[in-house]
Amino acid sequence: MIFDLFGNPVRAGKGKRGRPAFEVTERNRNKVKLLLAQGKSNQIIADAIGCSLATLKRHFRAVLEEREKARAQMDAEQMMMVWEQAAKGNVGAMRLFVQLMDRSDRMEVERQLAQQVRGEKVGKKEERALAAKDAEAELMAELQLEARGDVRH
Length: 153
What we know:
mainly alpha, 7 helices, 68% helix
């Protein structure tokens, strides 16, 4: 089989007129999922896998319908892989797991603050949780600076 520059198989004409039918591969399906998780548009995704927008919608309809879930699924899978390595005693994975948890907490705080800015009502408990997370993030940042010897006064 012949492959192009990006590792995609070059389909032979098979003696028929017109363009050969698009073939869905596991690699293309994973590429679509990854690009969805990055928030790319359908046209960019179609260009990336080498098909038209109509072909993308025809063959990947089920995947495209999960656009909103794609980022959460990718983050969850990443967290699981890092956690499994951390549980085995990998110190680098432990450190990365803590960083991923901190990033997740920051993203949640930002999401809740964005709700407040848009005028959506946030309850008292949520406001207190936000304040606690902000204070915790500031404390963690200060502790990390102290651990490195960069104490601010």
